[in-house]
Amino acid sequence: MSAWQIHGYGENEKLTLSTSSRIPAIKHPKDILVEVHAASVNPIDIRMRGGYGHSLFNIWRNQGGMFSTRSEFPLVLGRDFSGVVIETGKDVKTYKAGDEVWGVVNAQKQGSHAEYTVVSSSEVALKPKNLTHVEAASIPYVGLTNWAALYSVGELTPSNTRGQRILVIAGSGGIGTFAIQLIKAWGGDVTTTCSSESVEIVRDLGADVVIDYKTQDVQYELRQQDRFDLILDPLVSKKRVEYINYLKQWRNSKLVTIAPPFLRNIDTYGVVPGVVKSVGDLSCDVIKGAKDGCSVRWAFFTPSQKGLREISKLVEMEKIRPVVEKVYDFEDLLSAYEKLEAGHSRGKTVIQIK
Ligand SMILES: NC(=O)c1ccc[n+]([C@@H]2O[C@H](COP(=O)([O-])OP(=O)(O)OC[C@H]3O[C@@H](n4cnc5c(N)ncnc54)[C@H](OP(=O)(O)O)[C@@H]3O)[C@@H](O)[C@H]2O)c1
């Protein structure tokens, strides 16, 4: 099969298209082999290409028996996909060959920027019927990161979100375009920040208040508004909790950051010191919030079949739609990486594989 692989960490020149890779084999009874029709590109692909997270991912890979040669290379990137089931492990009861599925691939596994991928059956769900594979591939990774941040960690639900005021930082990217739609589908009130070129897109997705960070002073504009019940911050910043002053005080409000320094700390300091440093960083964040009765939480992408199924329902009800900015052919994957790396996403970049 064809697969984009890296044989070492670095920039785009590390990515090579192999046309003679082995189709991955099912090793666990609950795994399924999927023919990938489309996959998206996420910032984590760019970061993993450069080595991000390798210290922890390699520990997991070793435990999972993925290494055949005591090395993670050649490594296939790509964290989500839409495709067709080819073969199932003997304990898979919910899917059969021919089913159209969408899903995610854990970061320690071989990814989806390939013609075939093997995933656990718990990491997939049936693809929404109203989406093409390209449209479907744009959703699982950002959808489940939002599910983790807003539902699991942020404690928003379809029944408690109505009337809540939520600030989504960076509404125009893959995470933001999904977050706005999920919160609106659950009845919340969304304020978002983006650059001038994206104002129309985020309004179209339902944002109630849009702050253009290129032409407006974001901090000033936020001070003019009522405070928020929840703030979703996906941006890596030295001031991790810079928006904390805009949360309601003593009202169970939360700042959820999905750009915490956890993996970076482990890569920089090693596993044990990195975990210790992260506990210290998180404690500082929590203390900053606690003095005003707010809570600061870190959230991470987490596979969730329940999440995928709920997202699927919202997509089929047309409460959430895919926001695909650009589609690249499989052979042109390097351009897709360059595009995402240049920043200024307006939704998602997708690779069409079949
Ligand atoms: N913890 C996790 O498991 C997890 C998972 C997924 C993502 N993330 C985090 O979420 C981040 C965003 O992911 P994504 O998929 O949305 O990336 P993306 O599609 O590349 O979007 C990033 C967006 O941020 C906008 N932006 C940049 N600076 C901004 C600012 N100061 N104010 C407002 N908007 C700004 C960019 O547009 P302009 O450049 O035009 O402003 C772009 O639209 C990732 O970089 C990562 O840190 C974390």
Automatic annotation (TrEMBL):
A Pfam family matched in the record: ADH_zinc_N_2
Reaction(s) catalysed (UniProt annotation): 3-demethylubiquinone-10 + NADH + 2 H(+) = 3-demethylubiquinol-10 + NAD(+); 3-demethylubiquinone-10 + NADPH + 2 H(+) = 3-demethylubiquinol-10 + NADP(+); a 3-demethylubiquinone + NADPH + 2 H(+) = a 3-demethylubiquinol + NADP(+); a 3-demethylubiquinone + NADH + 2 H(+) = a 3-demethylubiquinol + NAD(+)
Cross-referenced CDD domains: RTN4I1
Cellular localisation: Mitochondrion matrix; Mitochondrion outer membrane
Cross-referenced PROSITE patterns: QOR_ZETA_CRYSTAL (PS01162)
Family: Belongs to the zinc-containing alcohol dehydrogenase family. Quinone oxidoreductase subfamily.
Record-given protein name: NAD(P)H oxidoreductase RTN4IP1, mitochondrial
Organism annotation: Lottia gigantea (Giant owl limpet)
Classification of source organism: Eukaryota, Metazoa, Spiralia, Lophotrochozoa, Mollusca
